[in-house]
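Same chain as my last thread, 645 residues:
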Amino acid sequence: MKIAAFNVQKLEWTKVNKKGVRDNIIKIISRYSVVLLVEVTDKSGEAMDLLRKHLNAYGDNRSNPYGMLCSEPLGPEGHKEKFVYFYRKKEVEIIQSHQKGENAEDVITRQPFMVLLNCSNTVVKDLVLIPVHTKPSNAEAELNALHDVVEGAREMWQTDNIMILGDFNADEPYLSNEQKEALRISSARYHWLIDDDVNTTTSNKTQNTYDRIVVYGESMLEAIVPDSAKAYNFEEELNLTQEKALSVSDHYPVEVELKVELKAEPEVELMMELKVKPEVELEVELEVELEVEPEVELEVEPELELKVKPEVELEVEPEVELEEQMEKLMMEQKAQRNRNPVRPSTGGRPPVKMKIAAFNVKRLGWTKVNKEGVLDNIIKIVSRYSVVLLVEVMDVSGVAMETFLTHLNDYGDNRSNRYGMRCSEPLGQNRYKEKFVYFYRKKEVQILDSYQYGGKDVLTRKPFVLLLNCPKTVLQDLVLIPVHTKPSNAEAELNALHDVVEDVREKWQNDNIMILGDFNADGDSLSKRKKEKLRISSAPYHWLIDDDVDTTTSNKTQNTYDRIVVYGESMLEAIVPDSAKAYNFKRELNLTQEKTQSVSDHYPVEVELEVKLMMDQMAQCKRNPVRPSTGGRPQGAQKKKRRGA
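reply #2:
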């Protein structure tokens, strides 16, 4: 159940009468159950009647036709426009409409033509739409006045299911971020669904978020399908040239999806809720069963050092490889562990595991850090890792992250195995900026160097790169390159990461490189075909998070946006096999869907590095191999070079 607002830029007879332009407008409108058209300059109404006629003759619209409702021409003389709604009559019923009156004191240039809809297939049932097209030079005053329009609609129709949508002109140079945050419709009960970094303009020369969708109240927010609010880039989706895209409009539509109400039988609904991919379910269950809880890290005490009992003699044929000897040794060690289990680590001593993760925490700033329940869950997640990169941190002053670090180091065993923190500067190409923030256990990891990558302007947020010393791992040194692409530019940004890698290799003469973060490498942002053609998809790069891993917390989506990629065979061999995965904190922390999404709309992606403990035992085994029993036969087993992990 998709709803959209689309400024079609002076939509009147001239545009509608051009078949190529009209066809593209019809394809766009046909995506939606309800669409509001803004900047319709068709005084007579003939152009809209013609558009509806062609719209209902297009494809499946013949059997699911649109109705239309138009306002009167609104605004000052010489600049009058209409608000026009198209709605699928089988899905939506217009219960009532209301034109807010004009008077001398009004600051709103085009008074909203509001509609009350019945959307019987959705969870909200009734819905009020309030259309917006502000005068750019008066945007702040008009947007502030919308609060009074909302209160009027609530009183008139006795409903809080309200959506404000249209061309707000809510970006530079008409509205600064500070002005936006001070608006009355930016207060607690209002929720802005289109993020500030979403480009709603078609021109290659501009990048602004003029068009918006705002909903009123928590119930209305709950009715929105998570991550469905976005701009529809018809230039890319319809494969148009820039010229043809601009002939349609200088704006992209903004859209959102409402949750539908399932009307299946109870048994069928239960089946739908439980339906998951069998292979994913099996994999998850195995991981849950075998995984040691983060607080119960295993440490080998000196007195419990695992050795082969002297009386155990391994009978092998002379031609048995050294690898098979080591395998038998490790099986004996496992049996001894079962007989003499290692006690959990206490007192914060370095764990055997060395986990690294990247986590998009969705607009992590003071608001989230100041919510006790949300803060506690983020701390539990971060505490799983030796190193974790946090993405989408919106903490300009740094106060929120300092507060978070204090609480993090006061949690459980973190008191004796504390975290350090390293933050980038706010990064971004416009006023929407984020930080990359690393947390690392100071007893396990040392930051040797860091630098802010400066090349390739195609990167929206240029990587803040770290060189780490991890003495307990087989790597020793490790480079981390953080990523958070802009969804609409994911392909270009991911391609540019190859140049970042080459820059790092030259700067630090090191090939132990890991790229991690929110790649937006799935769904509408990046097709599988485009992913396979990326420069970082060819040798010697290795993608560790499989394409069927869901890194989103929403029940309605299943996408692999977040990734970990390593460079080279040596780096790949340093990874514990099958350790790369998404950490489903909803299940592991036993959270409700609401509490899960209050933390983030992403799961962390994690991986484990091989530690020296096992590798040192293997090295010792190579130096002092277990002698095969010959049974009187001559010893002649030939040693072979160990294959890569």
